[in-house]
Amino acid sequence: QEEPRLDVLINNAGIFQCPYMKTEDGFEMQFGVNHLGHFLLTNLLLGLLKSSAPSRIVVVSSKLYKYGDINFEDLNSEQSYNKSFCYSRSKLANILFTRELARRLEGTNVTVNVLHPGIVRTNLGRHIHIPLLVKPLFNLVSWAFFKTPAEGAQTSIYLASSPEVEGVSGKYFGDCKEEELLPKAMDESVARKLWDISEVMVGILK
């Protein structure tokens, strides 16, 4: 409402492997924060993004999408909840959302791409219980092998600002390079169905 234009939207809010809980709107927390929140915010800002074109949307996913599936019978995980699978489901949803949005934005000069940042040293893993005896070793490993937040942000920054990806849309990136997706992340019928159901869940369609 306050800004006359919007050049870049980066959807990076996330929660990781939390115990079963719900958002204020009654959604399973990981699906609600990681997918539905991005879906709603992006849709609310689409008009401004289109009027500001050329503009870009960037969605932060995870390689762990590979272990997820979209179970339309239990999207809210009320029948069963596995915190690892539900995280992976939300990250697969990020990719399907990106690809369907790219299809809908063709010809608008608004692009949308999705990325995995790698394993980054942040408090995203605060819900993971690490035994006290193992903690020093874990800390050592994380300092040696995990990315710093600045390193983890590089692909997001690249997709938000690099001239190299001007006009590129609907693609999946890691370490500032395009990467291949598993077939389940490219299933157009699942992506469209997820879009339609998400619209109803967040109240865009009554």
Automatic annotation (TrEMBL):
Coiled coil: none annotated. Keywords: Oxidoreductase. InterPro entries: NAD(P)-bd_dom_sf (IPR036291), SDR_fam (IPR002347). GO terms for molecular function: oxidoreductase activity. Belongs to the short-chain dehydrogenases/reductases (SDR) family. This is Retinol dehydrogenase 14-like protein. It comes from Equus caballus (Horse).
